[in-house]
Batch of 3 targets.
Target 1
Amino acid sequence: MEKIYFNFLLLFIPFSCFCQQKQINPSNKNEVKKEISADANDKNNLLDWQIDIPVGFSIISEGELEDLDFGSKEENSGKEITTLISFRKGKQNIFTAAYESLQDKEKITFEEHKSTSLKVLQEMYSKERIKFDVVNSDLKLGQYDFYKILIHMYSQTSKLVLTQEIYSSYISNHLFTAVILYEDENLGAILRENFITSFK
């Protein structure tokens, strides 16, 4: 199941760590706040965004990411996608966020992007013969319009084994995407609330 998830991430968030991550205001609760920004030379100030790392979660290093099954370098080459931050607790409770420049890309509307994403997901999971259901919705986080795709994956006995939440938005001519994967519903709720409140 983990391999399926990471192969899916290749469609949305290939992993390369070129962002700046500065520690600010570490609290005595062992929560570390990170300031996430685009390249310091980026004059567009892509996104002024900060997110807490919940207690008990640890940042996934670039080396750890390379050890996971994300596909070959050839598959990822040429994609202008930057991972902002990734952290996890255990093997299957993960948060990751990334952005991709839309400059010089074929122009599609936000609704078209959502429709395409849903179609790709449904085709992919169907080919893998996984029991799943997909629900999508729209929401506003801070000043940004997002769409959310919620995927439940089930065992052959119809037991819920994994949940994936995908949040995407067009921000300053970039596609920003955050993915939450969890097998533990309580940890999933923590990751979801942590992400949503990061835009308030």
Note: The CA atoms of residues 4 and 147 lie 22 Å apart.
Target 2
Amino acid sequence: MIQEICNFTKNNINSSHLIKYNELINLDLSNYLYNEEIQTRTSFRNFKKNTRTDKTKIKNILSDLNNIKNKILNISNCVDIGFLDNKKTLSETNESPIYIFIDGEFENIPLASKFSRENLFIQSEMHDADGVVFFLWNLDKFNNILSKPNFIYREMIMISALLGQLTSIIAIHNELIGTPFAGIIQSEWESLISSHKNKRPLFAYAFTSNKGGD
């Protein structure tokens, strides 16, 4: 399926691409038991407030995802991996629960206004997940390939969905459960954070460590 989509896209669109289709075709997911895991994957969003995922496990998941992202994209820093730390696993003291995962470390993003359960998502229950992985597109990186903006936007959506799918598989492999969803509301992002305002959030994956708790 992936190879058929890649071949069709390469042969029918004469333009610069954000993604390296040859790398995508040859992407090795055997470490994550992809064929087995995808058959057992279910959507879960009945998140509990007293669960928490280990910081090391979160970092390992995002590191794996970041390595794949850098491998398949022509402009690796055109999209950042964001993380919403609902349970303050990364820091009990940081006012902002929003981070960007860069070079193996979590960069805390300062808030411009007070954070609440009503921020960021249409689905407020996503704030009960242990964490939310999301994808932030840096529009400043597209100056040289915006002659066909609609095409670029379609690739952004496709890549975000691909990264969300991969996040779910990596999460399952790490014994986590969760659900993909549309992600952060753009206007909420711009009003809540004090930097990175020229970035566009597309798609997300919310996860939790288990089904127990209250």
Note: The radius of gyration is 17 Å.
Target 3
Amino acid sequence: MLAVIDITSYLEAQAKDLSIPGVADSIGIRGQDDLKLLEHYHQGKHYILPRHSIKYSFILNKGSDALAECWINAAASRRTCRATFKAFLECHYGIPKSHIDLKKYNVDHLHALVVANRMEHGYVRLALTDARVNQAWGNWEKNYAKNNQDGHGLLRNINLAQVAKLAGVLPPTNIPTEEYLLDFQIRTGGETDDNSLTALIALLMRGLRLPPGMDPTEYAMTPAIELNRRLKRKTELEKRRQVMIDPATIHIDLNDFREKKTKVR
């Protein structure tokens, strides 16, 4: 049975629940008609909070061994999101509303609203995040939404950047260095094969500011190709996984590697 008794244990359970894309990854749906699909996907049932309406929010209960999910209408205000999430924690887990320090934590959509609107999603999943980390990812998410023209879809799945945010990993501010990528993989439990690494680099690059006239896909793949030649340190990575070096001791020099933004031929 999942033991959630306070904010700390909730955050730990949340990070675990959203740590593996493809397993517990639903963060956006089109509307009420897709609730059955969501329930079937998670083998759960939804319910409505007291004095709330299905029009505005619902809770997905996945059983005593899994974390419940709080979903909100994508058009809801930030104030409504915070109030609904507090009500969810108090109603479902008995955590008093007063125990959520909104200066330390943010109640935020896992699904960027600009992308939710583009995909015609009426509901998005809420999460509790470290305020400093969440706000640091803000510009990255705006660029990602701008550089990726997502089409319509029934569900929106979580990506590694959102997993990293929940794990407390700060976003890259420039082309990600080798050290940053190693730290990212360790703290998110990411795969170490070349294909996964290439996909990770491409994902991170899509949230960075692009040079004028540069195609997002082309820009993402240019450093991926070059870095893939250099990142052959899997033995060291595995050792660091075992030792779990404190990320604060890892020196990240953003000037260590700057890719010439030339077109891939």
Note: The first strand starts at residue 26 and ends at 29.
